[in-house]
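During the first year of the project, the team set up a workflow for recording each protein of interest as an amino acid sequence followed immediately by a discrete structure-token representation. This format lets reviewers and collaborators read both layers of information side by side without switching files. As required by the reporting guidelines, we include two representative entries from the current panel. The first entry is reproduced here exactly as it appears in our internal archive.
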Amino acid sequence: MPARKWTKDRVIAAIHERQRQGLSLTSVWREDSPLSQASKSQFGCWRKALVAAGGPGAPPHEKRPHGGVTAGACARCRAGARPEPTRARE
């Protein structure tokens, strides 16, 4: 049986279902990969999908699956810039 196609409405419904069930909205990338990927393909990023679902967006301390890179750094990477080296914490 083929997988159902994700639409914006289906992503929003899945977010509402996670909220209804009391599931985390900050660890979707780890717990529900299909929803995470669909949110990115339909909305561009998880935060925009949350906003479209009526939420305030992901909290600023959200851990990201790509090593905690900030949204600004992600945008720079997409634009072709090389990632900046990290500094050791003192």
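The second entry, processed by the same pipeline in the following quarter, appears below.
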Amino acid sequence: KAATAEVAKCAAGSDQMLCGAAISALGKIGGADAAKALDQAKGSAPDNLKLAVYDALLKVAEKMAAEGNKAGAMKIYTGLNREGTPAQVRAAALKGIVGASK
């Protein structure tokens, strides 16, 4: 988790292969810092990497919920369940909201 800041810098870079790998790594690292970096990347990622960002955010939220941080997970899920987000991402976020609210 100490590497989150360095990985986040890679996620915002111009090399798309490196960005994709960094986005995936942030999803695996998890935690609030990774979620923040991914949320920032969501706005600036090229279209071909946006689904990777959404997937990584869903992974972070799942990890948070599993670790007992349901409030953090709900914040991510709610942020993904919005107009303009792809339908499959919204469906996964809604499923996460239901699961985290139990």
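For the second entry, the following points were noted during internal review. The two ends are 28 Å apart (CA to CA). The chain is about 80% helix and 0% strand. Both points are flagged for discussion at the upcoming steering committee meeting.
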